[in-house]
Write a structure and sequence with these properties.
With 375 residues, the protein is α+β, with helices and mostly antiparallel strands. It has helices at 14-17, 178-186, 195-198, 230-236, 305-340, 350-362; strands at residues 6-7, 26-27, 32-33, 40-44, 52-58, 61-67, 74-77, 91-93, 96-98, 105-106, 112-114, 129-130, 132-135, 138-141, 165-170, 173-174, 200-210, 214-225, 251-258, 261-268, 273-284, 290-300, 364-365. Helices cover 19% and strands 33% of the residues. α2 (178-186) runs antiparallel to α6 and α4 (230-236) crosses α5 (305-340). It is globular and about 75 Å long.
């Protein structure tokens, strides 16, 4: 089979992200890791309670999130420098976290401030600390070069905090490389997969924009048969099949990957934003072949806001069913990758081909990646 090759990122970024020399080489997309020099969510804020510590992960890195009784949350490597046991099993005292084993205490910068049974300075060793921020009900860390953290902005997150929208969160874990998720959402031509949930609809490609770090595709949808689901009608408005005629464009769905995040926005025929989805795909495992999703879905409240409240459970069930169909398919793609020993995708849609190049260009070939043979 033909293996679609994708180019890696240029060498000028090698000193920061570990990219290889000016690589003209091309790599299997599923062996290209996320660039760590961005802000990645690793927990919901409400999960990290005051005076407690919470275990989280980014790729192969265990991270302990510590929230003192006062002051902001902070992030440390989740291994005590002494015997390497998880700091997340420790105790928060004041602004420090104490290891559960021998009571070594570490401050928010990772410095060991106390080895209680020796009582002198400079004995304990530090642990790694991560730049850490909170926004939109999420806790973000910067797993790359900490010197770059201040220069990299946190992402804009859906319509969290906008009283005109109602927002729900979702956080499924998937057994697949993060790139499968970007491809799945960007390619609206897969609506046949969702025929049981949405009836017979067809995506109509309306154009695209792209740049060095982003790719956006726009679609509208035409209903070819089947009843419109209630949740869909709530978001889009009532659509009916028009026998023998081309359906008018009622809304525009814009899907955008701005590396490493992805968004989906729906504007109605008047240009008003009616739905805003923001999602981050956080890699899991040293091979990054697992993904923890953090997503926020904001829906515009109708004139009578209580109607959205009444329909909220149905909307949640509808989106859950859609996502479960997507989950099954991307995990099957990952299974095929394993069984075939690499990426045998034969892509024909120009939008997805451009997206794959974007993900490769901005990612980091991992230690197992080998240049593909050309030709």
């Amino acid at each position: 089979m033909q293996v679609e090759a994708v180019a890696g990122k240029a060498a000028e970024q090698a000193s920061v992200s570990g990219k290889g020399p000016a690589h003209e080489a091309e790599y299997d997309l599923r062996q290209i890791d996320c660039d760590p020099n961005f802000w990645y969510p690793i927990a919901w804020s409400h999960k990290v309670r005051a005076g407690k510590v919470f275990p989280a992960r980014y790729a192969g890195h265990p991270i302990a999130l510590v929230r003192p009784e006062s002051g902001p949350v902070y992030a440390l490597e989740d291994r005590c420098a002494h015997r390497q046991v998880p700091l997340s099993k420790g105790v928060v005292e004041g602004d420090c976290i104490k290891c559960c084993y021998h009571g070594w205490a570490f401050d928010r910068g990772g410095k060991c401030v106390t080895v209680p049974y020796l009582n002198k300075e400079g004995v304990g060793r530090p642990v790694r600390s991560y730049p850490c921020r909170e926004k939109g009900g999420l806790i973000f860390v910067f797993p790359g070069d900490p010197a770059l953290a201040e220069s990299v902005p946190l992402p804009e997150i859906a319509q969290v905090g906008n009283p005109e929208f109602k927002t729900r969160r979702f956080f499924p874990r998937l057994k697949c490389h993060y790139t499968f998720m970007h491809e799945n959402l960007m390619d609206m031509n897969h609506q046949f997969l969702h025929r049981r949930q949405m009836g017979s609809i067809t995506a109509r490609f309306m154009g695209q924009d792209k740049g060095e770090n982003f790719m956006e595709a726009r679609y509208s949808f035409a209903r070819k048969g089947g009843n419109q689901p209630l949740a869909e009608a709530l978001i889009f408005g009532k659509h009916r099949e028009i026998e023998g005629k081309e359906q008018p464009v009622e809304e525009i769905v814009s899907i955008r990957t701005t590396y490493p995040y992805q968004t989906l926005k729906i504007h109605d025929k008047d240009g008003d934003l009616v739905m805003d989805l923001w999602v981050a795909y956080v890699p899991l495992g040293s091979d990054q072949l697992g993904t923890q999703t953090f997503g926020l879905l904001s829906v515009k409240k109708p004139k009578w806001a209580f109607l959205l409240d009444l329909a909220w459970p149905a909307l949640g069930l509808f989106t859950h069913r859609i996502f479960e169909e997507d989950r099954e398919i991307v995990e099957l793609e990952q299974k095929a990758w394993r069984e075939l020993g690499g990426d045998h995708t034969i892509e024909v849609f120009p939008v997805v081909k451009a997206l794959r190049a974007l993900l490769a260009r901005n990612g980091v070939p991992n230690a197992r990646a080998r240049p593909l043979e050309k030709g």
